[in-house]
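Researcher: I need the complex structure. Ligand is [4Cu:2S] cluster. Inputs:
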Amino acid sequence: MGSDADESERRSPGEVVDEYERRLESVLAEVDEPVPDDEGPTLELAGLEIDRRDFMKTGIAAGAMGAVAGCSRFSPGGGSGGQSGSSDSGVDHRVAPGEHDEYYGFWSGGHSGELRVVGIPSMRELTRIPVFNTDCASGYGYDDETSALLEEGGGYTWGDNHHPNLSETDGDYDGEYLFVNDKANGRIARVNLKYFETDAILDVPNMQAIHGCSVLSPDTKYVLGNGEFRAPVPNDGTAVNDPDAYESLFVAVDPETMETKWQVSVDGNLDIVDTGKEGRWAIASCYNSEEATDIQGMTRDDRDYLKAFDIPAIEKAVENGRYDRTVNGVPIVDGTRSSALNEGDRPVVQYIPTPKSPHCVEVGPDGKYAFIAGKLSPTVTMLDLEKLGSVSDPADAVVGRPKVGLGPLHTTFDGNGHAYTSLFIDSQVAKWDIEAAVDAENGSEDPIIEKLDVHYNPGHIQALEAMTTDPDGEWLVVLNKLSKDRFLPVGPIMPDNDQLIHIGQGEKEMELVADHPAYPEPHDCVFAHRDKISPKKVYDRTDYEGEKPYVEEKDSGVERTGESSVHVKASTKRSEYGLPEFTVKQGDEVRLTMTNIEGVQDIIHGVAIPEHDVNLAVAPQDTREVTFTADDPGVYWIYCTYFCSALHLEMRSRMIVEPSE
Ligand code: CUK
Ligand code: CUA
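Model: Output:
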C-alpha cells in the first residue's frame, strides 16, 4: 500500500467521495472537448497523478493509464499472417492509446441480429448496435419504446442481417442513417447515426427473406431489398403445392417514412443487389432460374440471369397504374420475362444471362461497371451500365469476364483502377486491373496482378469507402468464414476471422497485417471516414419532447392513475434516484419513467429491478420508460447497473409492494 492509501484512510468517507467526484469531473471536462488528433490528453492526465483505482469507466483515460503503465503495447513482429501490430515491411495498423481510428467500420452481425462498430485500421471493436435482437447491456428490448419497436417490427426475437448500407447524399455518406436487411424474416431496419440506435424496423409485406439490400445512389431515394425465397404471394395457404406459382419480389422502401412503396415480381429468385451511381439501375444477381425447390433442381442449368431493374421505368409504371395487383397494400409490378412491361424500349426488368449461380453484385466507384462474381464459375462478369440503356440485346452489355480463381464471391475497389475479388474456394484475394479485363478475352487470366492467401474461405471484402464514388484505398478487410487454427481453440463454435490487408493507394503489393476474431457471423461491412459520422455525446431532450416526459428531480413521485395502476417518475444522477423509495400495491401495473439529468458524457445510470425483468440503461439527458406488473408483495432493491461513481453501489431505490389484502 502506498502513501495514497494511508492518506485516504485518514479521511472521512465524505471527503474521499468528494475528492473522487472532483477528479472525475476534471477528467470528464477534459474529454468533453473533441480530442485533437496528435495530442491526446495522455500527458496531462499522467500529470494529474490520478490513481489507477480511480478509473472506473472513462474510456479515454483508461487508454492513458495503459500508456503510463506500459501495458498496452502489442508485441511487434510476427510477420504477415500473424495477429500482430505491424508487418514484415513495417506497415503498422496500431492506433496508440488515447488516439482515435480514422475510419468507422460498420459490420453486419449475421444471425446474432446486431451490428458491430469497429475502428479502422486498429480493428478494435468500439460498440455494438442491437437491431433485431434484444441486448441487456444497452437495455434494448427492455424499455417500452424499444420493445414496441421490436414488437411492431414483427415480434421476432432474432434476425439475420447481412448488408449494412450508409445513407448517401451526392454519392457520398451523409452520416444520417444505416439500413440493414433481415434475411430471416424479410425485414429492413434503420439505425439513426445521431445516437447509433435502431429507430425503425419494417416487416416488409409479401416477402419472406430479404437478402440483398442497397440504398439507391446517389441520394438514397429508396432502400432496395431482394426477396431470396420464392413463395406464393400472398402466402396464405393457397398454391402451396404449386412451385410454378411461387414468386420472388424486389422491394423499394422510403428511407424517411420506412413505408413500402412498390414491389416487382420476377422470374427465378434474387440474391444480392447494388445500384449504379445515377439513380437508374439496380442490378441483382440471381440463382435458381430453374425455379426448383431442391438443390439438384436449382443447379440444373448452366445459365442464370442477372436482373437489371430500371427504377424510373418502374416508378412510371406504378404512377400510371400499370400494375395488376395490390397485395397487403403494396402495388406489385409484373417484371417477369413475359410481362407486357418488358416489351418496348424501356423494359422494367432486363434479364442478362450469366454462368450459373452468380453471387455478388458490386458497382465500381465511377458507376461504369457492375461486377458480378461467378461463385460456381471462376469468373467475374462485368456489365457496362452505360451500354445497358442502349443495346437491344442486354447480353451485349457484358464487356469483360476475367478468370480470377475458384469460388469468386465479392469484389471491392481502391479507386485507382483495381478490383479485388474474394475467392472462397481458393482462400485467396485476387487483385486485378479493371480496364485490362475489358480489353482481354473472356476467360483470360491476364488482368490478374496478384493473389494473396487469406485464412480461410473469404466471403465479403471491403476497401475503405469502396461503395462511394471516391474510395480511399489504403486498407481492405476480408471477412473469412472460417478461422480453423488461427486462434486458441474455444470449443466447436469457432470465431470467423476478419483480416486486415494493406493495399496502399493500390500501387502496392497486398500485405496481410492483422487477424481479428469475430463472433458469428458477419457477412459484410462498410467504412466511412470519421469526419462523415458525428454522433451526439448526450441526448438532446427536444428530440423526444411530447413523446416522453423529462423528469426533473423535483418532479419525482408516485401518481395513482387508476384502481390498479400507478405512474412512478424519478430522476437519476450520481449517485441517487429522485425517489429513495416508493410504494405500490400488489397487482398494480407500474409505469416507471426515469430521466438521467446529468449533462456530461459517459455517465449512464442503470435501473435494475430484481425479480421483475426490468433493466434500463439511461444515458445523459435521456428518458426511458418501462411498464410492468408488481405481482408479488415484498421489498425490492432497485439498483444502478452502470458503474457511475464511487457511490455507485449505494445508488439505490426501494420498491415496496404492499400485499393486496
Ligand atoms: S452474402 Cu454472406 S458472403 Cu449474405 Cu452478401 Cu456473400
Ligand atoms: Cu448510477 Cu451506477
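Model: Summary of the prediction. Residues 1-5, 32-83 have pLDDT under 50 and may be disordered.
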